[in-house]
Amino acid sequence: MSTRQNIVDISQAEQGTSLWHDAWLRLRRNKLAVLGLVVLVLFVAIALLTPWIAPYSYQAQDLELGASPPSAAHWLGTDIFGRDLLTQIMYGGRISLAVGFVATSVALLIGVTWGAIAGYVGGRTDAVMMRLVDILYALPFMIFIVLLSVVFGRNMLLLFLAIGAVEWLTMARIMRGQVQSLRQQEFVEAAISLGLPPSTLIRRHVVPNALGPIIVYTTLTIPNVMLLEAFLSFLGLGIQPPQTSWGLLISYGAETMEEYPWLLIFPGLALALTLFSLNFLGDGLRDALDVRGAKD
Amino acid sequence: MALLDVQNLEVSFVTRNGTNKAVDGISFSVDTGKITAIIGESGSGKSVACYSLLGLVPQPPGRIDGGRALFEGRDLLQMDEHQLREIRGRDIAMIFQDPMTCLNPYMTIGKQLMEPLLYHRKVAREAARERALELLEEVGIRDPAATIDNFPHQFSGGMRQRVMIAMALINEPKLLIADEPTTALDVTIQAQILKLIAELQHKRDIGVIFISHDLAVVADIADTIVVMKQGQIVETGDREGIFHNARDPYTKKLLAAIPTDSKAPLPGQPEPLIKVRKLCTWFAQGHGKEPVKAVNDVSFDIHRGEVLGLVGESGSGKSTIGRSILRLVPVTSGEVNFDGTELTRLEGRELKTMRRRMQMIFQDPFASLNPRMTVYDTLAEPLLLHGIETRKSVAQGVLKLMDDVGLARAFVRKYPHEFSGGQRQRIAIGRALATRPEFVVADEPVSALDVTIQAQILDLMQALGREYGLTMLFVSHDLAVVRHLADRILVLYHGKIVEQGSGDDLFERPQEAYTRQLLQSIPGRSLLA
Fold it and tell me: Distance (Å, rounded) from C-alpha A290 to C-alpha B48?
């Protein structure tokens, strides 16, 4: 083998931690997933910049105008109080996206860690940890929320907490199942015999191999959480006017659907676009992380 | 006229990456009352050829491109699904490698045996049961009347395979196709099943196609041997001809891959590296149940620089001994002394330091490599963990390991699924050697591999063993392989050592009844000796 060949080999070899790098390369080739990612980044950027780029102030209303269909002045029309719908959707998106991503991240972090530890350590630790999950599962969600709101009063943080506290339970169960079957695999045994500390072992050998179902469940959780928020807000337990969210806008729009359809269509479209993007991105991520499915 | 006459059979698979010819114009025949063995490595097309005869190759992606398969004068390849269904199971029956996956776990074996009679032949229930009992008796199930209503999991692997054979025979087939029927079984059970198949074939005067990857297995029973390679037949001959006058170089290679020699013991004064004393490893079975005594009061030494062979059947505790020494399973009691350090009570940092000095090579290279790590990551991990290489020099270290185990450097960024079994085992060996261990446990490192690959990997292990100055515990159920490789051999039975000695001692002068039984079970002894 020539020296030149050797140089090539080594420079190839020096690119470490290849899984995520390779996954990113594969994801980039998946057009739908990239589109989903672009839409999500765009939505998040708009949400962050809303106070500066919104066409009208959040409080601004034109009572004489009332509910008007889309026009040059109000691109998406106005609601019954004459407030600009685009502005409302932009401010609502701040809350919906925050609830969706923050609550899911909380659920992901707690759920994956909890499930991985329970599944990996096993025995009595596993039994105690999973019984706790069972107990929390058994708690009726509504009672839990009412309890929290009695203790802490109504605020955004409470909403994140409540939703996150419910969603991580399923995540933990999925993770535990995955880890339990992975723990029996010989490559985990091989890693133990190399002398790898348990934390590194879980992070490097167990979690990456359990990611598939976790990613799929995560992309299902985010929309779920957004809808939960809408449901809670609708019941008066979540976001309250004058604050708004996509869920609230949709529920108001649904009431006046026959007279002013745009009030339902546009917030619904915003939510639907987000959900589609999440699904495409989630599918793409799952495929990208599965090295066996790779065709190159 | 032959019972089955296959002429110029061609089968291909159409995939996204083009058409792949799995069977490329093969011709063979099976006579009534004879056993035809089809031998080949994985991917040689031996199973596809037989499955395509019965319409069991899914189309697409499979496609039969041509040829004829005359069964009693009628061409199987021209039949429609309905006609084939008539023939399958009635005139031509099959038995498969893994009897557990072929039996319905929720039905008693009696019901499963009676089903074809009740539905296809409309036999009365009483008569069907009577017939099932007869057959179970015939295939050597002890006390069939008491066991006919048991479920599959209540039988051992060998007994399940007997049940499968009974099921295959219940409709009085004229041709039996056996696809690696003994590969999943222990060597002594394998010998019994081979004997049973030969007896039944003789008694019932039926034709048998015996598919196997292992020439030695069919040495005692086959009348005709067909050797396949890459979809083509390279040689056909009778048993004597193949074993003593093989003409084709590939057949010769297969024969040469069957190890027959025995290694001479190490010269000089033995110096123990590892002392195992009164080792017990028991597995709890839940409250009130007797624990499984996988390893029960075992004592032995492993000398520096030697290869110690550990043989026994599945369940004899041979794998557990290796894992106990490496602290991969918790030891119940006893001592394992490694070069002056007591291993059984080590924890934390001290254990990690010792782990560097002893490594393991696993049986299944498809399970022992993390599917999401490239060769580079797999080999770099131990190098970095134990500070053998720095971040800067690790790439060099990885490539050096790849050279040592005979992997092309260009593969460094590939994932395990992109490799063949033999190549994957090379990666696994490279990982085990990365820490520069003094001691390696090899747990059936070649039993998942094709015969010729087995020989390559064994050669590699021997060469590396010398180069790295390794002491090795070689665990295997394959006595011929152990004899070829090991300086001394321990024979294990039910968690206890029954006999130990050099290869020649054990093979030429076995003392214990169990050792003799094991030796008699080695397939193909008569022809290979």
Answer: 29
- Residue where the block lists tokens 């001290």: B350
Q: Is B486 left (phi over 0), alpha (psi -120 to 50) or beta?
A: beta
Classify B321 as helix, strand or coil. helix
Residue A217 has pLDDT above 80, yes or no: yes
Domain boundaries, chain A: 34-55+74-293
Higher pLDDT, B20 or B490: B490
- Measured between beta carbons, the chain B residues lying within 8 angstroms of A12 are 412-413
Domains B4-91+173-256 and B272-528 agree in fold: yes
Question: Which residue in the set B374, B382, B396 is minimally distant from A10, CB to CB?
Answer: B396
The contacts of residue B169 (CB under 8 Å, 6+ apart) are B93, B135, B138, B139, B176, B200, B204
Q: Which amino acid is at B283?
A: F
Among B437, B303, B305, smallest CA distance to B361 is for B437
B367/A187 touch (CB, cutoff 8 Å), yes or no = yes
Do the Cβ atoms of B72 and B174 come closer than 8 Å?
Answer: yes
Binary contact (A1, B368; C-beta < 8 A): no
For B429, name the nearest residue in chain A, comparing CA atoms only. A190
CB contact (8 A) between residue B413 and residue A18? yes
- Looking at beta carbons, which residues of chain A come within 8 Å of B360? 189-190, 193
Q: Is domain A34-55+74-293 classified as CATH 1.10.3720.10?
A: yes
Q: What is the pLDDT of residue B527?
A: 61
Q: Which residues contact B2 (CB under 8 A, 6 or more apart)?
A: B29, B30, B31, B70
The per-residue DSSP string of A130-178 comes to HHHHHHHHHS-HHHHHHHHHHHH-S-HHHHHHHHHHHHHHHHHHHHHHH
The closest CB to that of A19, out of B359, B372, B398, belongs to B372
The residue of chain B with its CA nearest to that of A16 is B377
Cβ-Cβ contacts under 8 Å, B413 against chain A: 12-13, 15, 18
Complex ipTM value: 0.73
Q: Which helix (H) or strand (E) holds B412?
A: none
CA A107 to chain B, closest CA, distance in angstroms equals 25
The alpha carbon of B263 is separated from its chain's Cα centroid by a whole number of angstroms, namely 23
> Which comes out higher in pLDDT, residue B219 or A73?
B219
CATH number belonging to the domain at B272-528, selected among 3.40.50.150, 3.40.50.300, 3.10.20.310, 1.10.10.10: 3.40.50.300
pLDDT tens sequence across B322-360: 999 989 888 888 888 888 888 888 888 888 888 989 999
Closest by Cβ to A193, choosing from B328, B396, B413: B328
Q: Do A6 and B409 touch (CB under 8 A)?
A: yes
Residue appearing with tokens 């009572």: A63
Side-chain-side CA neighbours of B14 within 13 Å: the count stands at 8
| B292-319 residue pLDDT tens | 888 888 899 898 888 999 988 877 888 8
* Closest by Cβ to A194, choosing from B362, B415, B435: B435
- The CA distance from B118 to B208, in Å, is 26
Cross-chain Cβ contact B409/A204 below 8 Å:
no
- Buried/exposed code over A2-14 (b: 16+ C-beta within 10 A; e: otherwise): eeeeeeebeeebe
* Distance separating alpha carbons of residues B165 and A54, to the nearest angstrom: 77
> Closest chain B residue to A6 measured between Cα atoms?
B409
* Peptide bond just before A242 cis, omega within 30 deg: yes
In angstroms, rounded to a whole number, what is the distance separating the alpha carbons of residues B312 and B498? 10
Cβ count near A143 (within 10 Å): 9
In whole angstroms, give the CA distance from residue A153 to residue A148. Answer: 7
Q: How would you classify the pairing of strands B74-75 and B175-179? A: unpaired
**Domain coordinates in residue numbering, chain B:** 4-91+173-256, 101-172, 272-528
CATH class, B4-91+173-256 region: alpha beta
